[in-house]
Amino acid sequence: MPLSTEPHTSSPADPRVLPRVGFDSLLAALQARGYRLIGPTIRDRAIVYDTLESSADLPVGWTDEQEGGTYRLARRDDEALFGYAVGVQSWKRYLWPPDVRLWRVKREGDSGFAVIPEEDEPPRDAYIGVRSCELHAIAHLDDALLHVPEPDAMYAARRERVFVVALNCHQAGGTCFCVSMDTGPRATFGYDVALTEVIEDGEHWFLVQAGSDAGAEVLAELSTGPAGEREMAAADRAVERAASNQGRTMDTTDIKDLLYRNYEHPRWEDVADRCLTCGNCTMVCPTCFCTTVEDVTDLEGDIAERHRQWDSCFTMDFSYVHGGSVRPSGKSRYRQWMTHKLATWIDQFGTSGCVGCGRCITWCPVAIDITEEVAAIRADDRGGPDQLPTERPPR
Known about the structure:
By secondary structure, the chain is of the alpha+beta class. 29% of the residues lie in helices and 24% in strands. The protein has helices spanning 23-32, 92-95, 132-145, 153-159, 178-181, 213-220, 229-244, 255-260, 267-274, 280-284, 330-349, 359-362, 370-379, and strands at 16-19, 36-43, 46-51, 62-67, 70-75, 99-108, 112-115, 125-130, 162-168, 193-200, 203-210, 225-226, 291-297, 303-310, 320-321, 324-325. The longest helix is centred in the last third of the chain and has 20 residues, at 330-349. It is globular, with a radius of gyration of 23 Å.
């Protein structure tokens, strides 16, 4: 399904109330249409996205506590299905998988080769519980991989087969800052169905709203009731709590020019002293899409394959050209990542590449905080004309 970035608008009659006991009917309706359900579940003491069969697979009654370099699960005092901030993984894992075989050939005779056709087509997936920040992240991937002169065929094939069940956040995390990035916590575009989970006054229900014709068809099959002013107000309060309880903020005023004119700010050296260049931030980031290719053969040399795999601008080889790496230091690699997210992405696509999900802060082993780095540079803005990096690869 193409992801429109136009705000979704509806008449007041559109939202409906789905009782908690009827939630599985929504999942069943999607399964009946041939969708594989992908959503949050608990594995290895973390909330991750994986296949679901019913609401029993969701992290019912669990939340996550996130801070810089810290993640742990904790029990809630209710039975919320989506009472956590944001999962370890992003939906990028399914739209832009970490390892994809591009082609495979086999030897025929002494000098001939034949292409082995790929038989599997992308699954029809229903993403359950997509946060607003992640809808924006998917839109960013669309800009880079779909809305270009030569779209990536594999991404396009996966993207058009997705049904999106969005979730308006009612739980903020310690590293969330989507309000600063204007990417949440309320979903405004890009969904087929939007949910707002409400647990209040001993009641547990969902405000449900269609965002597409396909979503409206699904909701028409469910036993829902009308949403009155009381229900609408309760859903608004839930979202407002998430907006007001975010653990981080980022001042994005003039951020592109701020970073451009501070290429040689001493803060880059400070962060380089802490950064392990492990690439965790790029792996968990929902908008990083850099890849490399790897060719492999079987032991007999009869079959060869080419794979596309996730890569990171934090690795030395990523910027390797004949004679060495263009960005040999940790300073230059961190600066490349952060200025791409917050500055050059704006030049490329007209918007910031950061959606404020906070994953890069949570999963950094040394708790480097992108909001803190921006604040430090802003507090000591050197001003003057835009600078260019002076660091060059060794000869």
